[in-house]
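Can anyone check this?
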Amino acid sequence: MKKISAGSDWNKVDFDKLFLPGISVDTVIFGFHSGQLMVLLLQYRNTESLALPGGLILKAESADEAAQRVLIERTGLKNIFLEQFHTFSDPNRNDPSFFKEIMKARGLPPTKNHFLLNRFISIGYYALVDFTKAVPASDGLADECKWYELKKLPALIQDHKLIIKKALLMLRENLDKKLVGFNLLPREFTMGELQDLYETILDVKIRRTSFQRKMLNLEILKKVDIKWTGEAHKAPYLYTLLKSSDRK
């Protein structure tokens, strides 16, 4: 399929032929930067509306494949953590007026019963990426794609704040259960940086000695170097996450 971009002639896109009707994916893409948990959002400039990166599901792909495609197109990254966490099916979640605005902005007449104006059930996914490696890119309907601090989110369309809230709950639940937080860090990190990440996600303060003991007792970290700060006596150790095959 030819990629649908901002410059595509939307009148020539046969939505009914290409996509599954009534179902889509929405992705909550988390990043961690300067002590803040970040969320990637799309901005529809002509409508002043913001939304989570999402997309329709091609008839030849699964929901997981659609979410992976959205993730690659929005961040430029492959092989990163992505997990399905909830299906959003409230009959009142759709807002046709929003889609009418963006369709008009792209030269696509919002005719009655158009594919994009029907009710959609959305499958929610959350992804964890290294903030420094992601290259945000907009989709064919949006004008801008950029990071926003989780604690300072602007107004979002439909139920997208609820989707983020549920994604955050799942991230918190899986921090220890699946050790997913490491996907938000670079390959090498200090114990302080790891603790900062946990405190930010959980929104609590953690005792330093207790946290370090807990992490080391898991036997999943490997000490690799010293992070030079200019003051040798304060230089912290750098760690990396052991591969599953190397863990005890």
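Reply from J.R.: I decoded it. Residues 160-177 form the longest helix (18 residues).
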